[in-house]
Amino acid sequence: MSERESMPCDVVIVGGGPAGLSAAIRLKQINEELEVVVLEKGSEIGAHILSGAVVDPKALTELFPDWRDMDCPMAETPVTDNWHWSLSKNGKTSIPHIIMPPLMSNDGCYTGSLGNMTRWLGEKAEEMGVMVFPGFPASEVMFDDKGAVRGVITQDMGIAEDGSQKGDYQPGMEIEAKYTLFAEGARGSLTKQMKAKYDLEANCEPQVYGLGIKELWDIDPKKHVPGRVIHTQGWPLSESDTWGGGFFYHQANNQVAIGFVTALDYKNPWVSPYQEFQRWKQHPAIREYLEGGTRVAYGARVINEGGWQSVPKLAFPGGALIGCAAGFVNVPRIKGSHTAMKSGMLCAEAIAAEIAGHESQPELQGYEPAVRSSWIAKELKLVQNAEPAVAKYGEDIGTILAGADMWMRTLKIGLPISMKHHADYTMTGRADLYPKIDYPKPDGVISFDRLTNVAFSFTNHAEDQPVHLQLGDADLQKSSEYDVFGGPSNRYCPAGVYEWIEEEGKEPRFQINSQNCVHCKTCDIKDPNQNINWVTPEGAGGPNYPNM
């Protein structure tokens, strides 16, 4: 067995997204002598970043007041107008923004590639001396003899599928740190372990999620309106008693980002979020923009939707959760990068203060109070009942109740009520209680099959490596996921990873095509028995999103 190399530092950050990089940059802004390491599982910074995105620049301005003059790609396209449509099968109704709470406004926001903004943040971090290591997933957490986190171990390279060492085997490196920050995004594998070990969710509601599926299109310049932002609700999810909605953002260079979010608490196991997205594109109001255009990229990722009441305990001995690892998404605004960045900055400030004061507290003291007294808390408290209202009462009545609650909280007359959540996997119903859904075949022009689209995520995993989608009990998968729930894994996965192979005279066989995985984490969330565990694959595996 090869001995692992060890690298000491002050802070190691697991995840090179907006939260992790903002924390690293803020640490260096406060004390340039601090040794800060950022580990990113993607092949490069930004490779695994997927968002709409319409970005509120509040946190970015706090981090870099002159960011608009610093060649930040997000500055290219300010939002110019907003539309919100309620769709029926063939028509639409515009919902006036004047009836929406002020917090729903996109004035002063920008639309563009969050991946490219993250690449820019990575460059700024490296210029400041942050050690950024893309292609190095953190796969294991190290603890000291008192149970405190003391760092992480990066993924071993060159392990064969059967667990043996290949000729190019390299053991992972131990990164030892005074503080370890988990910035893995929604449903991170190590974050799950930290939540369980330190019981971080003991006093909060369970986190709930939506699956966001996105395509980039180059469209006819005559149809392109730079900075136009469109959101939709209603059809097609209204036909299956499911909720969520679409987005259509006119970004730079005659390109649009389009996508669809399906809340993962849906009951009907025959629902396919991917197919619902493809149906949505065929709506006349959407299709007219896309006709004559070309799809150029595809991807998918889960989104935290639990809101303020699902934020767990943030700090624990030796470490902390930041960004979407903790869950700071503002669901009605469909925004989370600004709150994620701010959480990373607040955590960095707390760490720098403790290191400067030569404190040796077993648990970071200043971070959690800072978050809970910040504008993150103020913003998320205004919308804390929006998601559970729609989840409980349905999209029509729930939207009205959510709007009323947001207005009351905005006017400071809100009721002191915090609605509760139910974990998404518990909501899935038996297959025999729901009608099967006959989705139309893709036309290859506006709508596409999954495997064709996955090719446009530029996903790649090294061959002959352990399957990173770990099945707990194969018999349970057959007796429950297939026999009771109708095999929903074949439908909830947006990348065609899971198949039930049915051959005459044989028992159905569960097949995992892990090479297709775009790291969305839906399986880890929606499997009705929590029988699938997503862990990090070998370094640099997964999607390579361009301009997403």
Question: How would you explain this protein's 3D organization?
Answer:
Helix content is 25%, strand content 23%. The protein is an alpha+beta fold. Strands 1, 2, 7, 8, 9, 12, 18 and 19 form an eight-stranded mixed sheet that branches. A hairpin with a 4-residue loop joins β15 and β16. α1 packs parallel to α3 and α1 packs parallel to α7. The protein is globular, with a radius of gyration of 23 Å. The model has no long low-confidence stretch (mean pLDDT 95).
| Structural class based on helices, strands and sheet pairing | alpha+beta
Radius of gyration using CA atoms only:
23 Å
* Count of alpha/pi helices: 15
Poorly predicted ranges (pLDDT <50, ≥5 residues)? none
Mean pLDDT across the residues is 95
Helical fraction equals: 25-40%
Give the overall form: globular
* Strand elements, count: 23
Biggest sheet: strands, sense, closure?
8 strands, mixed
Strand content: 15-25%
User: What is the CA-CA span between the terminal residues?
Assistant: 40 Å
